[in-house]
Protein backbone atom coordinates (compact mmCIF):
# COMPACT_ATOMS: atom_id res chain seq x y z
CA UNK A 1 0.00 0.00 0.00
CA UNK A 2 1.21 3.52 -0.81
CA UNK A 3 2.42 5.81 1.96
CA UNK A 4 2.37 9.60 1.68
CA UNK A 5 5.46 9.62 -0.55
CA UNK A 6 3.83 6.91 -2.62
CA UNK A 7 0.75 9.11 -2.99
CA UNK A 8 2.82 12.02 -4.26
CA UNK A 9 4.80 9.88 -6.73
CA UNK A 10 1.67 8.29 -8.06
CA UNK A 11 -0.32 11.56 -8.19
CA UNK A 12 2.61 13.19 -10.03
CA UNK A 13 2.28 10.65 -12.84
CA UNK A 14 -1.31 11.80 -13.41
CA UNK A 15 -0.33 15.47 -13.45
CA UNK A 16 2.47 14.68 -15.91
CA UNK A 17 -0.12 13.65 -18.52
CA UNK A 18 -1.21 16.92 -20.16
CA UNK A 19 -4.83 15.91 -20.76
CA UNK A 20 -5.95 19.33 -21.94
CA UNK A 21 -9.58 19.23 -23.15
CA UNK A 22 -9.80 18.20 -26.82
CA UNK A 23 -6.02 17.79 -27.04
CA UNK A 24 -6.35 14.42 -28.77
CA UNK A 25 -7.16 10.82 -27.98
CA UNK A 26 -3.50 9.82 -27.68
CA UNK A 27 -3.07 11.98 -24.54
CA UNK A 28 -6.06 10.36 -22.88
CA UNK A 29 -4.99 6.85 -23.93
CA UNK A 30 -1.65 7.41 -22.25
CA UNK A 31 -3.41 8.73 -19.16
CA UNK A 32 -5.60 5.60 -19.03
CA UNK A 33 -2.51 3.42 -19.19
CA UNK A 34 -1.08 5.26 -16.18
CA UNK A 35 -4.35 4.71 -14.28
CA UNK A 36 -4.30 0.98 -15.09
CA UNK A 37 -0.80 0.73 -13.65
CA UNK A 38 -1.28 2.96 -10.62
CA UNK A 39 -4.50 1.32 -9.41
CA UNK A 40 -3.86 -2.41 -9.91
CA UNK A 41 -6.72 -3.56 -7.66
CA UNK A 42 -9.27 -1.51 -9.56
CA UNK A 43 -7.84 -2.83 -12.82
CA UNK A 44 -8.21 -6.39 -11.51
CA UNK A 45 -11.53 -6.20 -9.71
CA UNK A 46 -13.71 -3.43 -11.16
CA UNK A 47 -15.66 -3.53 -14.39
CA UNK A 48 -14.63 -0.83 -16.83
CA UNK A 49 -17.13 0.32 -19.44
CA UNK A 50 -16.39 1.94 -22.75
CA UNK A 51 -19.18 4.48 -22.77
CA UNK A 52 -17.84 6.81 -25.48
CA UNK A 53 -14.95 9.12 -26.37
CA UNK A 54 -12.24 8.98 -23.71
CA UNK A 55 -14.80 8.91 -20.91
CA UNK A 56 -14.20 6.44 -18.07
CA UNK A 57 -16.76 4.54 -16.06
CA UNK A 58 -15.83 1.87 -13.49
CA UNK A 59 -18.14 -0.25 -11.39
CA UNK A 60 -17.05 -1.74 -8.08
CA UNK A 61 -19.64 -4.31 -7.14
CA UNK A 62 -21.15 -3.99 -3.67
CA UNK A 63 -23.54 -6.18 -1.68
CA UNK A 64 -26.53 -4.34 -3.17
CA UNK A 65 -27.11 -2.60 -6.45
CA UNK A 66 -29.65 -0.22 -4.92
CA UNK A 67 -28.75 3.44 -4.35
CA UNK A 68 -25.13 3.19 -5.50
CA UNK A 69 -22.51 5.85 -4.84
CA UNK A 70 -21.24 7.71 -7.91
CA UNK A 71 -17.89 9.41 -7.43
CA UNK A 72 -17.20 11.91 -10.21
CA UNK A 73 -14.26 13.94 -11.50
CA UNK A 74 -12.98 15.05 -14.88
CA UNK A 75 -9.81 13.91 -16.60
CA UNK A 76 -9.37 17.02 -18.72
CA UNK A 77 -7.65 20.20 -17.63
CA UNK A 78 -7.57 23.76 -18.94
CA UNK A 79 -4.38 24.75 -20.80
CA UNK A 80 -1.48 26.13 -18.77
CA UNK A 81 -0.69 29.15 -20.88
CA UNK A 82 1.29 32.29 -20.16
CA UNK A 83 4.70 32.73 -18.65
CA UNK A 84 3.39 33.56 -15.20
CA UNK A 85 3.99 29.98 -14.00
CA UNK A 86 7.05 29.83 -11.75
CA UNK A 87 7.39 26.05 -12.34
CA UNK A 88 6.86 23.82 -15.34
CA UNK A 89 3.06 23.22 -15.28
CA UNK A 90 3.16 19.50 -16.11
CA UNK A 91 6.26 18.52 -14.15
CA UNK A 92 4.42 18.05 -10.81
CA UNK A 93 7.14 19.89 -8.93
CA UNK A 94 7.08 19.34 -5.15
CA UNK A 95 8.10 22.48 -3.27
CA UNK A 96 7.45 23.70 0.30
CA UNK A 97 5.06 20.85 1.08
CA UNK A 98 2.98 21.41 -2.05
CA UNK A 99 2.60 19.72 -5.43
CA UNK A 100 2.43 22.25 -8.28
CA UNK A 101 0.84 21.60 -11.63
CA UNK A 102 -2.16 22.00 -13.88
CA UNK A 103 -4.97 19.86 -12.54
CA UNK A 104 -3.64 19.53 -8.98
CA UNK A 105 -6.89 20.98 -7.60
CA UNK A 106 -9.11 21.04 -10.71
CA UNK A 107 -9.49 18.19 -10.45
CA UNK A 108 -7.03 15.35 -10.84
CA UNK A 109 -6.80 15.43 -7.06
CA UNK A 110 -10.40 14.20 -6.97
CA UNK A 111 -9.79 11.62 -9.68
CA UNK A 112 -6.63 10.35 -7.98
CA UNK A 113 -7.98 10.19 -4.44
CA UNK A 114 -11.32 8.58 -5.34
CA UNK A 115 -9.45 5.87 -7.27
CA UNK A 116 -6.85 5.51 -4.53
CA UNK A 117 -9.56 5.14 -1.87
CA UNK A 118 -11.32 2.39 -3.83
CA UNK A 119 -8.03 0.69 -4.69
CA UNK A 120 -7.00 0.57 -1.02
CA UNK A 121 -10.39 -0.69 0.16
CA UNK A 122 -10.27 -3.50 -2.39
CA UNK A 123 -6.79 -4.39 -1.20
CA UNK A 124 -8.05 -4.42 2.40
CA UNK A 125 -10.73 -6.92 1.39
CA UNK A 126 -13.59 -4.50 2.03
CA UNK A 127 -16.86 -5.05 0.18
CA UNK A 128 -19.12 -1.98 0.02
CA UNK A 129 -22.78 -2.22 1.03
CA UNK A 130 -23.77 -0.66 -2.29
CA UNK A 131 -22.21 -0.57 -5.74
CA UNK A 132 -19.69 2.21 -6.27
CA UNK A 133 -19.28 3.84 -9.68
CA UNK A 134 -16.34 6.01 -10.70
CA UNK A 135 -17.36 8.41 -13.46
CA UNK A 136 -14.70 10.55 -15.14
CA UNK A 137 -15.61 12.88 -18.00
CA UNK A 138 -13.09 13.80 -20.69
CA UNK A 139 -14.50 17.23 -21.55
CA UNK A 140 -15.85 19.07 -18.51
CA UNK A 141 -13.76 22.18 -19.06
CA UNK A 142 -15.19 22.79 -22.52
CA UNK A 143 -18.78 21.90 -21.67
CA UNK A 144 -18.41 18.66 -23.63
CA UNK A 145 -20.70 15.63 -23.53
CA UNK A 146 -18.49 13.42 -21.28
CA UNK A 147 -20.75 13.47 -18.27
CA UNK A 148 -23.90 13.15 -20.34
CA UNK A 149 -22.49 9.98 -21.90
CA UNK A 150 -22.11 8.39 -18.47
CA UNK A 151 -25.45 9.69 -17.23
CA UNK A 152 -27.14 8.15 -20.27
CA UNK A 153 -25.30 4.88 -19.70
CA UNK A 154 -26.49 4.77 -16.08
CA UNK A 155 -30.08 5.51 -17.17
CA UNK A 156 -29.93 2.84 -19.89
CA UNK A 157 -28.68 0.30 -17.34
CA UNK A 158 -31.34 1.20 -14.81
CA UNK A 159 -28.85 2.56 -12.27
CA UNK A 160 -30.38 5.01 -9.77
CA UNK A 161 -27.61 6.66 -7.72
CA UNK A 162 -28.28 7.26 -4.02
CA UNK A 163 -25.61 9.92 -3.87
CA UNK A 164 -23.30 11.61 -6.37
CA UNK A 165 -20.14 13.38 -5.30
CA UNK A 166 -18.33 15.73 -7.67
CA UNK A 167 -15.81 18.57 -7.43
CA UNK A 168 -17.11 21.87 -6.08
CA UNK A 169 -16.75 23.08 -2.51
CA UNK A 170 -13.70 22.14 -0.40
CA UNK A 171 -12.37 22.39 3.14
CA UNK A 172 -11.26 25.99 2.95
CA UNK A 173 -9.01 27.53 5.57
CA UNK A 174 -8.56 31.28 6.11
CA UNK A 175 -11.87 31.87 4.35
CA UNK A 176 -12.71 35.04 6.28
CA UNK A 177 -10.51 37.21 8.43
CA UNK A 178 -10.82 36.10 12.05
CA UNK A 179 -12.41 32.76 11.24
CA UNK A 180 -10.41 30.14 13.10
CA UNK A 181 -12.13 27.06 11.74
CA UNK A 182 -11.89 25.69 8.22
CA UNK A 183 -15.15 25.83 6.32
CA UNK A 184 -16.26 22.64 4.57
CA UNK A 185 -18.57 23.84 1.82
CA UNK A 186 -20.87 21.13 0.52
CA UNK A 187 -22.23 22.42 -2.79
CA UNK A 188 -25.94 21.71 -3.00
CA UNK A 189 -26.82 23.92 -5.95
CA UNK A 190 -25.31 26.04 -8.72
CA UNK A 191 -26.15 29.59 -9.69
CA UNK A 192 -27.47 30.14 -13.20
CA UNK A 193 -25.61 32.20 -15.76
CA UNK A 194 -25.90 34.15 -19.01
CA UNK A 195 -23.82 36.38 -21.22
CA UNK A 196 -25.51 39.56 -22.32
CA UNK A 197 -23.93 41.68 -25.01
CA UNK A 198 -24.81 45.33 -24.45
CA UNK A 199 -24.49 47.27 -27.70
CA UNK A 200 -24.38 50.99 -28.39
CA UNK A 201 -24.69 52.31 -31.93
CA UNK A 202 -24.15 55.76 -33.38
CA UNK A 203 -22.60 57.70 -36.19
CA UNK A 204 -18.91 56.88 -36.41
CA UNK A 205 -16.36 59.27 -37.77
CA UNK A 206 -12.98 60.84 -37.44
CA UNK A 207 -11.78 61.38 -33.91
CA UNK A 208 -10.62 64.90 -34.70
CA UNK A 209 -14.21 66.19 -34.61
CA UNK A 210 -15.95 64.18 -31.91
CA UNK A 211 -19.68 64.52 -31.37
CA UNK A 212 -21.24 64.16 -27.91
CA UNK A 213 -22.61 60.87 -26.57
CA UNK A 214 -20.68 58.46 -28.78
CA UNK A 215 -21.33 54.70 -28.38
CA UNK A 216 -18.36 54.30 -26.04
CA UNK A 217 -19.47 57.19 -23.83
CA UNK A 218 -22.94 55.68 -23.48
CA UNK A 219 -21.55 52.24 -22.70
CA UNK A 220 -19.23 53.75 -20.11
CA UNK A 221 -22.21 55.48 -18.45
CA UNK A 222 -24.13 52.23 -18.47
CA UNK A 223 -21.26 50.25 -16.91
CA UNK A 224 -20.70 52.95 -14.34
CA UNK A 225 -24.39 52.93 -13.42
CA UNK A 226 -24.35 49.15 -12.86
CA UNK A 227 -21.22 49.41 -10.76
CA UNK A 228 -22.58 52.18 -8.56
CA UNK A 229 -26.07 50.80 -8.01
CA UNK A 230 -27.49 47.61 -6.58
CA UNK A 231 -29.04 46.38 -9.79
CA UNK A 232 -30.26 43.09 -8.32
CA UNK A 233 -31.44 43.22 -4.74
CA UNK A 234 -29.78 40.84 -2.26
CA UNK A 235 -32.11 38.16 -0.94
CA UNK A 236 -31.87 35.24 1.46
CA UNK A 237 -32.26 31.78 -0.09
CA UNK A 238 -32.69 28.56 1.92
CA UNK A 239 -29.09 27.49 1.15
CA UNK A 240 -27.69 30.89 2.11
CA UNK A 241 -29.67 30.79 5.34
CA UNK A 242 -28.22 27.42 6.37
CA UNK A 243 -24.76 28.62 5.46
CA UNK A 244 -25.07 31.78 7.55
CA UNK A 245 -26.42 29.75 10.47
CA UNK A 246 -23.51 27.26 10.31
CA UNK A 247 -20.91 30.00 10.15
CA UNK A 248 -22.61 31.81 13.03
CA UNK A 249 -21.84 28.87 15.31
CA UNK A 250 -18.11 29.61 15.11
CA UNK A 251 -18.15 33.37 14.62
CA UNK A 252 -17.44 35.23 17.84
CA UNK A 253 -19.27 38.28 19.18
CA UNK A 254 -22.27 40.17 17.97
CA UNK A 255 -21.91 39.08 14.35
CA UNK A 256 -21.96 35.42 15.39
CA UNK A 257 -25.12 36.02 17.42
CA UNK A 258 -26.81 37.70 14.44
CA UNK A 259 -25.82 34.83 12.15
CA UNK A 260 -27.08 32.19 14.54
CA UNK A 261 -30.41 34.00 14.57
CA UNK A 262 -30.58 34.38 10.81
CA UNK A 263 -34.28 33.48 10.92
CA UNK A 264 -34.93 36.81 12.63
CA UNK A 265 -32.14 38.98 11.22
CA UNK A 266 -32.00 37.63 7.66
CA UNK A 267 -33.05 40.84 5.97
CA UNK A 268 -30.46 42.81 7.94
CA UNK A 269 -27.67 40.30 7.20
CA UNK A 270 -28.24 40.22 3.43
CA UNK A 271 -27.37 43.91 3.39
CA UNK A 272 -24.54 44.02 5.94
CA UNK A 273 -22.58 40.86 5.08
CA UNK A 274 -21.83 41.77 1.43
CA UNK A 275 -20.24 44.99 2.71
CA UNK A 276 -17.74 42.91 4.68
CA UNK A 277 -16.91 40.59 1.80
CA UNK A 278 -18.52 41.66 -1.48
CA UNK A 279 -16.90 38.93 -3.58
CA UNK A 280 -18.17 36.16 -1.36
CA UNK A 281 -21.34 37.24 0.41
CA UNK A 282 -22.35 39.48 -2.47
CA UNK A 283 -22.24 36.44 -4.74
CA UNK A 284 -24.16 34.33 -2.20
CA UNK A 285 -27.09 36.73 -1.81
CA UNK A 286 -27.28 38.41 -5.19
CA UNK A 287 -27.44 37.99 -8.91
CA UNK A 288 -24.07 39.43 -9.96
CA UNK A 289 -22.88 41.25 -13.09
CA UNK A 290 -19.27 41.17 -14.23
CA UNK A 291 -18.18 43.07 -17.34
CA UNK A 292 -15.73 40.80 -19.09
CA UNK A 293 -15.17 41.90 -22.70
CA UNK A 294 -15.53 45.06 -24.76
CA UNK A 295 -14.86 46.32 -28.25
CA UNK A 296 -14.92 49.68 -30.03
CA UNK A 297 -13.31 50.69 -33.29
CA UNK A 298 -10.25 49.15 -34.88
CA UNK A 299 -8.03 52.26 -34.92
CA UNK A 300 -6.95 54.95 -32.51
CA UNK A 301 -8.46 57.74 -34.59
CA UNK A 302 -11.82 56.22 -35.52
CA UNK A 303 -14.96 56.77 -33.49
CA UNK A 304 -16.86 53.47 -33.76
CA UNK A 305 -20.39 53.35 -35.08
CA UNK A 306 -20.93 50.34 -32.85
CA UNK A 307 -19.36 49.35 -29.54
CA UNK A 308 -20.25 46.61 -27.11
CA UNK A 309 -19.51 45.24 -23.69
CA UNK A 310 -20.22 41.73 -22.40
CA UNK A 311 -22.05 41.40 -19.10
CA UNK A 312 -21.59 38.00 -17.49
CA UNK A 313 -24.55 37.42 -15.18
CA UNK A 314 -24.78 34.81 -12.40
CA UNK A 315 -28.35 34.30 -11.26
CA UNK A 316 -29.18 33.83 -7.64
CA UNK A 317 -31.74 31.09 -6.87
CA UNK A 318 -34.24 33.79 -5.93
CA UNK A 319 -34.16 35.40 -9.36
CA UNK A 320 -35.47 34.18 -12.69
CA UNK A 321 -33.02 34.72 -15.55
CA UNK A 322 -35.75 36.27 -17.67
CA UNK A 323 -36.59 38.92 -15.06
CA UNK A 324 -32.91 39.83 -14.55
CA UNK A 325 -32.28 40.16 -18.27
CA UNK A 326 -35.40 42.33 -18.67
CA UNK A 327 -34.18 44.58 -15.89
CA UNK A 328 -30.76 44.93 -17.47
CA UNK A 329 -32.37 45.71 -20.80
CA UNK A 330 -34.44 48.47 -19.22
CA UNK A 331 -31.31 50.07 -17.78
CA UNK A 332 -29.47 49.67 -21.08
CA UNK A 333 -32.30 51.47 -22.91
CA UNK A 334 -31.91 54.43 -20.58
CA UNK A 335 -28.40 54.85 -22.00
CA UNK A 336 -29.64 54.24 -25.54
CA UNK A 337 -28.08 50.77 -25.68
CA UNK A 338 -29.62 47.48 -26.82
CA UNK A 339 -28.93 43.92 -25.67
CA UNK A 340 -28.31 40.50 -27.19
CA UNK A 341 -28.55 37.43 -24.94
CA UNK A 342 -26.02 34.69 -25.62
CA UNK A 343 -26.89 31.52 -23.76
CA UNK A 344 -28.71 31.49 -20.46
CA UNK A 345 -29.14 28.85 -17.73
CA UNK A 346 -31.33 29.05 -14.66
CA UNK A 347 -29.87 28.20 -11.25
CA UNK A 348 -30.14 24.47 -10.54
CA UNK A 349 -32.73 23.34 -8.03
CA UNK A 350 -31.36 22.61 -4.57
CA UNK A 351 -30.52 18.98 -4.00
CA UNK A 352 -31.83 17.14 -0.97
CA UNK A 353 -29.59 18.21 1.89
CA UNK A 354 -31.50 16.69 4.75
CA UNK A 355 -31.74 13.03 3.69
CA UNK A 356 -29.79 10.12 5.18
CA UNK A 357 -27.31 10.04 2.26
CA UNK A 358 -26.38 13.67 2.82
CA UNK A 359 -26.24 13.19 6.58
CA UNK A 360 -23.92 10.23 6.11
CA UNK A 361 -21.57 12.42 4.08
CA UNK A 362 -21.69 15.15 6.71
CA UNK A 363 -20.85 12.63 9.44
CA UNK A 364 -17.86 11.34 7.45
CA UNK A 365 -16.57 14.87 6.82
CA UNK A 366 -16.99 15.67 10.51
CA UNK A 367 -15.05 12.55 11.47
CA UNK A 368 -12.18 13.37 9.11
CA UNK A 369 -12.07 17.14 9.70
CA UNK A 370 -13.19 17.53 13.33
CA UNK A 371 -12.52 21.26 13.58
CA UNK A 372 -14.26 22.18 10.32
CA UNK A 373 -17.57 23.98 10.13
CA UNK A 374 -19.74 22.12 7.64
CA UNK A 375 -22.17 24.19 5.62
CA UNK A 376 -24.32 23.68 2.55
CA UNK A 377 -23.08 25.92 -0.19
CA UNK A 378 -24.05 27.54 -3.47
CA UNK A 379 -21.59 27.22 -6.35
CA UNK A 380 -21.01 30.37 -8.37
CA UNK A 381 -19.73 28.46 -11.39
CA UNK A 382 -20.91 25.32 -13.15
CA UNK A 383 -19.85 21.68 -12.84
CA UNK A 384 -20.71 18.40 -14.55
CA UNK A 385 -22.79 17.61 -11.50
CA UNK A 386 -25.61 19.67 -13.05
CA UNK A 387 -26.01 16.80 -15.52
CA UNK A 388 -25.86 14.00 -12.93
CA UNK A 389 -28.31 15.87 -10.70
CA UNK A 390 -30.98 15.01 -13.25
CA UNK A 391 -30.85 11.38 -12.07
CA UNK A 392 -29.99 11.85 -8.38
CA UNK A 393 -31.62 13.92 -5.64
CA UNK A 394 -28.43 14.05 -3.62
CA UNK A 395 -25.81 15.32 -6.08
CA UNK A 396 -23.21 17.06 -3.94
CA UNK A 397 -20.40 19.26 -5.21
CA UNK A 398 -17.69 18.74 -2.63
CA UNK A 399 -14.11 17.52 -2.53
CA UNK A 400 -12.63 16.87 0.91
CA UNK A 401 -9.53 18.85 -0.01
CA UNK A 402 -7.99 21.20 2.55
CA UNK A 403 -6.92 24.39 0.85
CA UNK A 404 -6.59 28.09 1.53
CA UNK A 405 -8.79 30.60 -0.26
CA UNK A 406 -5.59 31.61 -2.10
CA UNK A 407 -5.06 28.06 -3.41
CA UNK A 408 -8.71 27.91 -4.39
CA UNK A 409 -8.12 31.02 -6.51
CA UNK A 410 -5.36 29.29 -8.46
CA UNK A 411 -7.74 26.98 -10.31
CA UNK A 412 -7.42 27.82 -14.01
CA UNK A 413 -4.57 30.19 -13.10
CA UNK A 414 -0.77 30.02 -12.77
CA UNK A 415 0.94 27.93 -10.08
CA UNK A 416 -2.10 25.77 -9.30
CA UNK A 417 -1.08 23.66 -6.31
CA UNK A 418 -2.22 21.31 -3.56
CA UNK A 419 -0.75 20.62 -0.12
CA UNK A 420 0.96 17.22 0.03
CA UNK A 421 -0.90 16.58 3.32
CA UNK A 422 -4.24 17.25 1.68
CA UNK A 423 -3.90 14.27 -0.66
CA UNK A 424 -3.82 11.64 2.11
CA UNK A 425 -6.68 13.38 3.92
CA UNK A 426 -8.81 13.20 0.80
CA UNK A 427 -8.13 9.48 0.40
CA UNK A 428 -9.02 8.95 4.03
CA UNK A 429 -12.28 10.90 3.75
CA UNK A 430 -13.48 9.02 0.66
CA UNK A 431 -12.65 5.72 2.38
CA UNK A 432 -14.49 6.79 5.52
CA UNK A 433 -17.55 7.76 3.51
CA UNK A 434 -17.64 4.58 1.41
CA UNK A 435 -17.38 2.49 4.59
CA UNK A 436 -20.07 4.48 6.38
CA UNK A 437 -22.57 4.50 3.51
CA UNK A 438 -25.26 1.96 4.34
ZN1 LIG B 1 -13.15 21.18 -12.55
Q: Could you walk me through the main structural features you see in this protein, from its secondary elements to its overall organization?
A:
With about 450 residues, the protein is of the alpha+beta class. It folds into two domains: about 5-170 and about 375-435, 3-Layer(aba) Sandwich (Aminopeptidase); about 190-345, Alpha-Beta Plaits, CATH 3.30.70.360. It has 15 helices and 17 strands. The chain has helices at about 5-15, 25-40, 40-45, 110-125, 145-155, 215-230, 240-250, 255-260, 260-275, 280-285, 320-335, 355-370, 385-390, 405-410, 420-435, and strands spanning about 45-50, 55-60, 65-75, 95, 100, 130-135, 165-175, 185-190, 190-200, 205, 290-295, 300-305, 305-315, 335-345, 375-380, 395-405, 415-420. Strands 1, 2, 3, 6, 7, 8, 15 and 16 form an eight-stranded mixed sheet that branches. It has a four-stranded antiparallel sheet with strand order 11-13-9-14. Strand 1 and strand 2 (about 55-60) form a beta hairpin. Helix 9 packs across helix 10 (about 280-285). The site of zinc ion has 5 residues, from loops.
